[in-house]
Amino acid sequence: MSRAEDIFNTIIADGASAINEFILQRQAEELFLDFKRSADNGSGKRLHQNDRNNLARAISGFGNSEGGVIVWGIDCSPDVEYADVAHTHRPIQDVKRFVSWLEGAVSGCTIPPHAGVRNHPIEINESGKGFVATLVPKSNHAPHQVVGELKYLIRAGSNFVPTPHGVLAGMFGRRPQPNIFETYITPPAEVQIDERVKCEIGFLIANNEPGIASDLFMQLTTISFLGDNCVLKLQLSDQDNWKGQFSFSIMISAISKPDVRLPIEMHLQPIHIEALIGPPFTKRLSIRGICGSGQSPPRIFELSNSAEMVEELYNKFIEKHRIRTLTESDMQNFVGDVFGIKRDDR
Description:
It is a single chain. Strand 6 (118-123) and strand 7 form a beta hairpin. This protein has helices spanning 3-14, 16-24, 49-63, 95-106, 165-173, 307-322, 328-338, and strands spanning 33-36, 68-72, 74-78, 84-89, 110-111, 118-123, 130-136, 145-146, 151-156, 159-162, 180-185, 190-191, 197-207, 213-214, 217-224, 231-236, 242-247, 251-256, 261-262, 266-277, 285-293, 296-305. It is α+β, with helices and mostly antiparallel strands. Helix 1 crosses helix 2 and helix 6 runs antiparallel to helix 7.
């Protein structure tokens, strides 16, 4: 998950409290975050031209860079260190209507249009007032030109600036690169005779950029695992396509064989784990990983949870099992919840 997506998902999850936190902390605009006050607070009959212009510049600038989030309904100004910081709420009058206007404007803001733009309303009262978060992910179809200005922008610090010739030439002439990241398969949990719960996770390597990846690799290291009554096994999933190495039963490394390649929107599973968990839970769950390819930088990730949270999840799960109210959804979600895997990554 990119930094922009992480910010956007946090805003979705926390709602108005995330907006309030920006104000309280005097959050500065930065590479992945931009605050915008609507020119008319969304009170007109259509999207104000100034708002449309700001949207177009953000789509070009963020889309041509590493992505970013615009939060509509926050006023910002320079602080003593000359950084633009969030300081005042300026709510949109009707956030659902404003989202509709934004979504209708996206396709006409840039050439080519950016199909990945998403908007999320945050209502703060029954009248529909609130804020809007707009996610502009890094684009696979860059460069994007601002309609009207005929400029190609990139994000530099907290500003959108014209793209230097060398960067623009690279966008046209560069060979597509892969973007490698981890994702997971979590089959339903199973309760054993001794009331330990069997959990399995398949660790996948995925690619969401046009470049084809080779020389893929993944490594997992068990830092700590819950307690003496819990068992964790690291295993190589596919020996036909991967070479693996184990170290003291706490680390596994896998690298793809020479003829294995990974195109866009595809994934491979080099490693999976099997675990039995049951009380007492005396240690934190912590598994660290790294993955990447010969054409992309490595990505570091971690699965973690506290012993207290795992105990709470376990007790609720076993209680439902005893009274025979466990659902398929409970068994499906248990593994991801225990290992701290976000729902979007499963």
